[in-house]
Write a structure and sequence with these properties.
Elements: E1 2-6, H1 16-27, E2 31-37, E3 57-60, E4 63-68, H2 77-95, E5 104-109, H3 116-126, E6 129-134, H4 152-165, E7 170-173, H5 177-186, E8 193-195, E9 217-222, H6 231-239, E10 246-251, H7 257-266, E11 273-275, H8 284-290, E12 293-297, H9 311-318, E13 322-325, H10 328-337, E14 340-343, H11 348-360, H12 368-379, H13 382-397
Parallel strand pairs: 1-2, 1-5, 2-4, 5-6, 6-7, 7-8, 9-10, 9-12, 10-11, 12-13, 13-14
Antiparallel strand pairs: 3-4
Helix pairs in contact: 1-13, 2-3, 6-11, 9-12
């Protein structure tokens, strides 16, 4: 197949999973072109090697990359809006001048949902079908920035989202609750929606992450530190455990990073909580090796709270027990796999009890790491995801 993947974000930006999928499709003999943006995430500024119009056309690991210009997001809400809009418009224009004829168009839809617009135009131009791989739900994902669902912009984007989702011939979602959201909120036919979870890092399966420092138990939270991640639940749980000796390692940054640092100082929790800032993906193994268990939390204010955060797959591949304060798909995975403990979102007392259980009864969780890896191998390997993706793309490539 000749496959066009539309995604505003791609290598060298830290979006490893879409890069994995594109390269895997190429390795299986398919011709893959990625229409993406000029890299500026997460710094908010154009990467040095891509300034002044450089490297707009590249071939990396057999994947042809076409870059549409954009306004860098910088670090403001206005900058983010301009970033989204500018790329959507320039990518839509760029689609008109792509010379190749594609068999299928795939949109790797993180935020914003607007990236489905150039994908739809590519569908029309090529007279083929559009496959949408939905990782972020819209407009509900906007509630991290907007206050209410009655906000004019939210209502407007609700209509835009409904229009764009309905232009997809087939949709795949990364969490099963997404199916209900798309069908109930946007009136999509649930028979045209499939469950396709994200893969994790298979390389972790061959590495040994046994704890190299057993003198003090450590719990790891890795990834974005934003409002949705409900980090206050973790910090409130720590305040109930001052009689225990352990460490919570936060690896990452985000909109709530400063708040968390201030909370820890104000409540004198520096003995129990350490912040390591953003780290390279390749540097994470050293933190996994120190961890007794890995943490995942998410607010359940709306449908986004039912998702399966992508880091869960990596946690499972590492072979560490999981401790969660999260609902929906993630709770199901933790309970079904038997890889740890999960309490409901926002339950800081329950989370504190989970920490206490790990500290006082380590033998109860001696098999959790093995269960985590076994579950990963059965559900989340790259090969399994690619095989299912290929099946869906092949279905879409069959012209009427």
């Amino acid at each position: 197949m000749k496959i066009l993947i539309v995604s505003q974000f791609y290598f060298p930006e830290p979006f490893q999973k879409i890069k994995d999928l594109a390269e895997s499709l190429t390795q299986k003999g398919h011709e893959v072109t990625v229409l993406t943006g000029v890299p500026n995430y997460p710094t908010g500024y154009i990467y040095q090697d891509y300034r002044d119009g450089k490297n707009r056309l590249e071939v990396v690991s057999g994947v042809e990359i076409v870059r549409a210009p954009l306004i860098p997001r910088k670090r403001t809400k206005v900058g983010l809006a301009l970033n989204y809009l500018s790329w959507t418009l320039s990518a839509s224009f760029k689609v008109l001048f792509l010379k190749k004829k594609f068999d299928v168009v795939m949109c790797y839809q993180t935020s914003p949902v607007l990236m489905l617009l150039p994908a739809w135009l590519a569908k029309l131009k090529n007279r083929c079908k559009l496959f949408g791989y939905v990782l972020d739900l819209w407009p509900v994902s906007m509630l991290t920035l907007l206050k209410t669902e009655t906000d004019f912009l939210y209502v407007l984007m609700g209509g835009v989202s409904r229009f764009l989702y309905k232009k997809c011939d087939l949709i795949a979602v990364t969490s099963k609750p997404f199916i209900d959201y798309l069908s109930q909120t946007h009136g999509l036919d649930s028979s045209k929606i499939r469950y396709l979870p994200q893969h994790g890092n298979d390389a972790y399966l061959s590495e040994n992450f046994d704890v190299d420092d057993k003198s003090r138990k450590r719990f790891l939270f890795a990834g974005n530190m934003g409002h949705a991640q409900d980090l206050d639940t973790i910090l409130k749980a720590v305040t109930l455990l001052r009689d225990r000796d352990f460490v919570i390692d936060f690896v990452g940054t985000g909109s709530e990073y400063k708040h968390c640092v201030e909370y820890v100082k104000k409540n004198k929790l520096t003995h129990w909580v350490k912040f390591h800032g953003a780290q390279k993906y390749t540097d994470l193994p050293c933190f996994y090796s120190r961890a007794t268990a890995c943490l995942v939390t998410l607010k359940h204010e709306n449908a986004v709270g039912l998702t399966l955060p992508g880091k869960v797959q990596d946690y499972l591949a590492v072979g560490k027990p999981l401790i969660g304060a999260i609902d929906g798909e993630a709770m199901r995975v933790i309970q079904e796999s038997g890889c740890g403990i999960c309490v409901h979102s926002g339950d800081f007392v329950g989370l504190a009890n989970a920490f206490r259980s790990f500290l006082e009864n380590p033998n109860l969780y001696s098999e959790c790491g093995k269960r985590a890896r076994d579950y990963y191998i059965s559900n989340f390997t790259r090969e399994k995801t690619v095989a299912e993706l290929l099946s869906l793309l092949s279905l879409c490539s069959k012209r009427d």
